[in-house]
Structure to design on (87 residues):
């Protein structure tokens, strides 16, 4: 898992991503959690630039058990509704 423009801060083993760490993709999406042999493996969270989060248990780079998926909150202020007159 080595993309041009990506970065990694964390534990390694034999020159590969292995252990706890933080992997940032060129898109600014960030994975924070456990890795093994260069892949997401164990508990980890994907943080997206728009504020969304995808928390899962990973096995060999694949999300196997999703714990939560949080979307960003967009508040919309609506004007109060006026009562509809009865006929």
């Amino acid at each position: 898992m080595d993309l041009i423009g990506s970065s990694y801060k964390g534990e390694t083993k034999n020159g590969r991503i292995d252990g706890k760490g933080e992997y940032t993709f060129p898109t600014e999406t960030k994975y924070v959690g456990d890795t093994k042999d260069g892949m997401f493996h164990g508990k980890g969270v994907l943080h997206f630039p728009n504020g969304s989060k995808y928390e899962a248990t990973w096995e060999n780079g694949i999300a196997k058990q999703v714990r939560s998926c949080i979307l960003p909150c967009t508040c919309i202020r609506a004007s109060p509704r006026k009562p509809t007159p009865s006929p």
User: Anything to note?
Assistant: The chain has one domain: 7-68. The radius of gyration is 20 Å.
